[in-house]
Design a protein that fits this description.
Layout: E1 21-22, H1 53-63, H2 65-71, E2 75-79, H3 83-95, E3 99-103, H4 128-137, E4 145-149, E5 162-166, H5 170-182, E6 186-193, E7 196-202, E8 207-209, E9 219-225, E10 230-233, E11 246-250, E12 267-268, E13 270-273, E14 276-278, E15 293-297, E16 301-303, H6 308-313, E17 317-318, H7 327-344, H8 355-371, H9 383-392, H10 398-417, E18 426-430, H11 454-469, E19 472-476, H12 480-492, E20 501-505, H13 530-541, E21 549-552, H14 566-570, E22 574-577, H15 582-595, E23 599-605, E24 608-614, H16 635-640, H17 645-660, H18 662-672, H19 676-681, H20 687-700, H21 706-731, H22 762-778, H23 788-796, H24 827-836, H25 862-877, H26 884-891, H27 899-918, E25 928-932, E26 937-941, E27 948-951, E28 954-957, E29 963-965, H28 971-982, E30 985-991, E31 994-998, H29 1003-1009, H30 1014-1022, E32 1032-1040, E33 1046-1047, E34 1052-1055
Helix pairs in contact: 3-10, 7-8, 7-9, 8-9, 10-27, 12-13, 12-27, 17-25, 18-20, 20-24, 21-22, 22-25, 25-26
């Protein structure tokens, strides 16, 4: 295999290339006329465009509108389109920039297919950029992709905001960077050589970062401010600030001079404790009385970057693996030596596993180290490491391209958006732990075969390539992570061998919002099954997968164990999760533990990601640790005392369910379920509420026209935003005090003001429109044609009843106080209510249409209603309102996502997959990863070992060990087996909830059960037949050891049918 000849990448003065041209556009990039279309209209600079939120919704929650607007005005050039270059280009296309230009005149070679997923066998001999242009352009209709033809000169870079160099000589990088650094153009170079990779960033002499972390600004409630400027947060709530943060204050009484919305008035803080911080001199501001909010202000930060030429002599490193903290300086020398070898050998890379070439690179490295600056020089070169770099230089691995391509693409987005902290300035990375230990790597075994896997064979050898091909792997999920994983697997050749295969399942269909990060799908695929489309896409990438990928459309869970049965799991070599919920992950984890299969787990959250390796008999399982519980709010806070917008959004979401789903479902149950009334009457507390709601929806308030739905919405507005608040203030007047003498309305309690309906207020009218349409949907009525003026006309005639607060209404004042108990209605009251309900037989075939919440349909009024309801409530309580975008994020519990993180994480997973294929049995060989591209931060840790337990001086694994009984023996034989073979006296034996045996059972019962086979015993006690597809039974035992002590022991698996 030959690495691309880099002499093609030299600069030229050939007059034929004095002007470069863009294919399909015009001749010179500096006057390119193609415009960035972000939504439906063309703009000159993208700055005033609207963003297609249905496509970019998940990414918007990572980057924000402002960052994406800056991206929409930026032109990016990528040089080199092998595996790494195409990975970067793919991620940038998905993210959305004004234009992407690609340059790579080299012809496609068969070995390029080792990692370049947009190349096909029939493309060999064609220009890489020319082939890839249309395939990249398919990813995002809003990002035009063009080919830069001709020679590459510094002057051609003027049209671009970012230039990315891959697969380029060091001399070319230096010449291009000299120009970009001098002209304020961001420059990024990246390369992979087998299991080695590096990244260099230069964003210019002055680059402004507007938000280094991407985290939401911290805010909190002030408890006190003393004369020294020490601020204490309310109720010992951790403030979450760090030294050097800036804050603004509002609603402070006594020190009103602190209150400001002007960010230039923000104060720098010094943290003195988790609940306190100092804000400096407060003299002359008066004495603090009460109240106050603090909000973090994110100040722009200016970074200074050195040029590549300067950085070679004086490098700054971002450590990618703290266990290898001393490796970047070694690789900094090694990569320069590799470039020198290539330049001295006519663009050729050192031969795989060739000792002569490796020694030459070591010699170059020694020369470079001897002549370099003191800042760069290493005390002692790691010759073994430098030789390994030489051995692998011709390698081209998809997982490495995915990892570095995700990180590089994120740096491109940072450079043009000013969002997130940059890589300063070098990152070196290697995964030498992924090299196989079960095969011998020689120069002969790593020679190219003229196949698409030559880039991988150069690193792992032919024998290991066969092992990869004969793997049987199960991918659970074909969404964002699943698409990237399948792409990597296709490049690896996973499952393509005679004995190999891939199983993939996903029950979901493709939606438009998926297209921004699930790159195997196109617009034409919307509505189709993910598993089928993804499998077809990767089979096109690697035709050797034809007939090797089995797709399923089923959820993996207890209800599909007849599909994913014993035979299915037993045939697998490993499982990879690509799921988005904990319950599904936990179930798959339990299956992997039971069948003792390796599991590769990963997840992303915006720029954050993690990977976990689960190896039988070595590591803990996914379920061994738990995520922190989802944040919740006290009921009394949501009902009566909100103090932040999250409270009002949660309230609006509950109101949505209480208005438009639950009542309609109750009506349908009443009409269709004969036992509904009986079961309702057995409930405690809310029988009257449910029955009254049914009566309202079927009789008293049943609308016949859309106009009546508008009237209903107006009356509900009055109840929720005026009457309820009047009642609250009647119970707790604004001047009321607590038993301790402090004002009731202080601290987290904000005194509300009842709303006065105004049809000219946009929030008021939006509430009416959304509520009326959703109420109409329940009854099959239409209001699409109504104009705002028609709404106002109906509203003008609505008679709103007068309201007077009632005495005796109990309201919970705080979460420590017992909630008011609902009075149980007497039987006569319920009887009267039941008699007033119409007979279900009078509504034969009639049903209401419950509204099922759907956040991604912008025409269905769901988010509109929650936004309006939340903002109306926020206005009543003096809380800053939220736009529709933020409300959708919180109410829809949207998980932020971006393609760069997904790409990086799947690359790390596949680097661990190599180890799984190799069958590693040392826990220190594996790595769990934690990344945050925003900071940026990459860290690895050794997996946690599985816990052990002992009985009778025997150690066993709490997770992975069990007692395997090979046949369907009797209960007597089972008890005797444990006594004789394990020295354990079984005291209790159970299967699920069925107690099969206990030592305290009467002799007669024991005599009846001892002769029974285990299957007969289980079926007799549970009164349920064992499914024919079930090959084994799980039994739990309690037992005493040889000393008579109760001991913890593993579970028992009884094989009841042959596998």
């Amino acid at each position: 295999m030959n690495r691309p000849t880099l002499e093609r990448y030299v600069l030229t003065e050939d007059p034929r290339y004095s002007r470069c041209c863009h294919r399909n556009t015009i001749e010179h990039p500096t006057i390119m006329t193609s415009k960035m279309q972000i939504d439906s209209g063309n703009t000159t600079d993208g700055q005033n465009s609207t963003i297609d939120e249905s496509l970019y919704s998940r990414q918007l929650y990572v980057l924000g509108h402002e960052a994406m607007k800056r991206m929409s005005a930026s032109n990016v050039l990528i040089i080199g389109l092998r595996g790494l270059g195409i990975e970067i280009a793919k991620n940038i296309c998905l993210a959305g920039v004004k234009s992407l230009t690609i340059w790579d005149p080299n012809p496609v070679k068969i070995e390029d297919l080792s990692s370049q997923f947009f190349l096909r066998g029939e493309d060999v001999g064609k220009g890489r950029a020319e082939v890839c242009q249309s395939r990249l352009a398919e990813l995002n209709q809003y990002t035009p992709v063009t080919v830069l033809e001709g020679a590459l000169n510094p002057e051609t870079l003027a049209a671009f905001q970012v230039v990315v160099c891959t697969e380029s000589t060091l001399s070319l990088q230096l010449e291009l960077n000299d120009y970009t650094h001098a002209n304020g153009i961001a420059f990024i170079s990246a390369a992979t050589y087998g299991l080695f990779g590096n990244l260099f960033c230069d964003f210019g002499a002055e680059w402004v970062c507007r938000d280094s972390t991407g985290e939401n600004p911290v805010s909190g409630i002030v408890a006190s401010i003393d004369e020294s400027g020490l601020v204490t947060a309310l109720d010992e709530t951790r403030h979450g600030l760090e030294d050097g943060d800036w804050v603004l204050f509002s609603e402070v009484e006594g020190m009103e001079g602190l209150n400001s919305t002007d960010e230039t008035q923000a104060r720098e803080i010094k943290v003195t404790g988790p609940y306190t911080f100092e804000i400096g001199d407060v003299s002359g501001l008066g004495e603090y009385k009460r109240g106050g909010l603090f909000t973090q202000v994110k100040k722009p930060k200016t970074y200074t970057f050195k040029s590549l030429r300067e950085s070679l002599a004086d490098p700054e490193y971002l450590i990618s693996d703290f266990a290898k903290w001393d490796r970047p300086p070694q690789l900094h020398i090694g990569f320069q030596a590799l470039h020198k070898f290539v330049e001295n050998h006519n663009g050729s890379f050192p031969r795989s596993r060739n000792e002569e070439d490796a020694l030459k690179i070591v010699e170059y490295a020694k020369d470079i180290n001897a002549s370099t600056s003191e800042a760069t020089k290493v005390e002692e070169l790691d010759e073994k490491l430098i030789k390994e770099l030489s051995y692998q230089a011709r390698g081209d691995l998809s997982p490495m391209c995915a990892f570095l391509g995700g990180m590089t693409a994120q740096e491109v987005l940072k450079a043009i958006s000013g969002k997130f902290g940059p890589v300063k300035q070098y990152l070196y990375f290697d995964s030498l732990e992924s090299l196989p230990t079960t095969v011998e790597l020689t120069e002969e075994s790593c020679q190219p075969l003229g196949s698409r896997y030559d880039g991988q064979i150069a690193v792992f050898g032919r024998e290991f390539q066969e092992k990869i091909g004969n793997q049987k792997q199960f991918l659970v999920g074909a969404g964002a992570i699943g698409c990237e994983m399948l792409k990597n697997w296709a490049m690896l050749g996973l499952g393509t061998g005679a004995n190999g295969g891939i199983q993939v399942t996903d029950m979901d269909s493709i939606e438009k919002s998926n297209l921004n990060r699930q790159f195997l799908f196109r617009s034409r695929d919307v509505g189709k099954l993910k598993s089928e489309c993804a499998s077809a896409a990767v089979t096109a990438m690697n035709p050797e997968l034809l007939g090797k990928v089995t797709t399923h459309r089923d959820r993996v869970g207890a209800d599909t164990e007849q599909i994913f049965d014993d035979n299915f799991w037993s045939a697998l070599d490993g499982v990879t999760n690509a799921l988005d919920n904990v319950d599904a992950r936990t179930y798959v984890d339990r299956r992997c533990v039971f069948y003792r299969k390796p599991l590769l787990e990963s997840g992303t959250l915006g720029t954050k990601g993690n990977t976990q390796v689960v190896i039988p008999h070595l590591t803990e399982s996914y379920s061994s640790s738990q995520d922190p519980p989802e944040k919740s709010f006290p009921i009394c806070t949501l009902r009566n005392f909100p103090n932040q917008i999250e409270h009002t959004i949660a309230w609006g979401r509950d109101l949505f369910e209480g208005y438009f789903r639950q009542p309609a479902e109750n009506v349908n149950l009443y009409l269709g379920s004969p036992n509904f009334v009986e079961s309702t009457l057995k409930q405690s507390g809310n029988q009257k509420e449910i029955l009254t709601s049914i009566k309202d929806f079927l009789v008293d308030a049943k609308p016949l026209t859309f106009e009546e739905c508008i009237v209903w919405a107006r009356l509900e507005f009055e109840k929720k935003f005026s009457n309820d608040i009047q009642q609250l203030l009647y119970n707790f007047p604004k001047d009321s005090v607590t038993s301790s003498g402090t004002p009731f309305w202080s601290g987290p309690k904000r005194a509300p003001t009842p709303a006065v309906f105004d049809p000219e207020n946009p929030d008021h009218l939006e509430y009416i429109i959304a509520a009326a349409n959703l109420h109409a949907f329940n009854y099959g009525l239409k209001g699409d044609e109504f104009t705002p003026e028609q709404y106002k006309k109906v509203l003008a005639d609505v008679m709103v009843p007068e309201f007077s607060p009632a005495s005796g209404v109990k309201i919970q004042a705080d979460e420590k106080e017992a909630a008011p108990t609902q009075t149980t209605p007497d039987e006569d009251e319920l009887k009267t209510l039941l008699e007033s309900l119409p007979m279900p037989s009078n509504f034969a075939g009639y049903r209401l249409s419950p509204v099922e919440f759907e956040k991604d349909d912008d025409t269905n009024h769901h988010i509109d209603f929650i936004t309006a309801a939340s903002n109306l409530r926020a206005a009543c309580y003096g809380i800053k309102t939220a736009d529709r975008h933020k409300t959708k994020f919180i109410a829809g519990k949207i998980i932020p996502a971006i393609a760069t993180t997904t790409s990086l994480v799947t690359g790390l997973v596949c680097l661990e997959l190599y180890k799984v294929v190799d069958g590693r049995q040392k826990i220190e060989d594996y790595k769990n990863a934690f990344v945050n591209l925003a900071l940026p931060f990459v860290a690895f840790s050794e997996p946690i070992a599985s816990s052990k337990m002992k009985y009778n001086n025997k150690e066993c694994d709490k997770i992975w060990d069990r007692f395997d009984i090979p046949s369907n023996i009797t209960l007597r034989e089972l008890v005797d087996y444990f006594k004789e073979k394990e020295g354990l006296d079984i005291t209790m034996l159970s299967s699920g909830v069925s107690l099969l045996y206990a030592s305290f059972f009467p002799a007669k019962k024991l005599a009846e059960r001892f002769p029974l086979k285990i299957t007969e015993l289980v079926e007799t006690i549970s009164k349920k037949p064992i499914p024919e597809t079930q090959k084994s039974l799980i039994l739990e035992i309690c037992a005493d050891d040889e000393t008579g002590e109760d001991v913890e022991v593993p579970y028992v698996r009884v094989q009841i049918r042959s596998a």
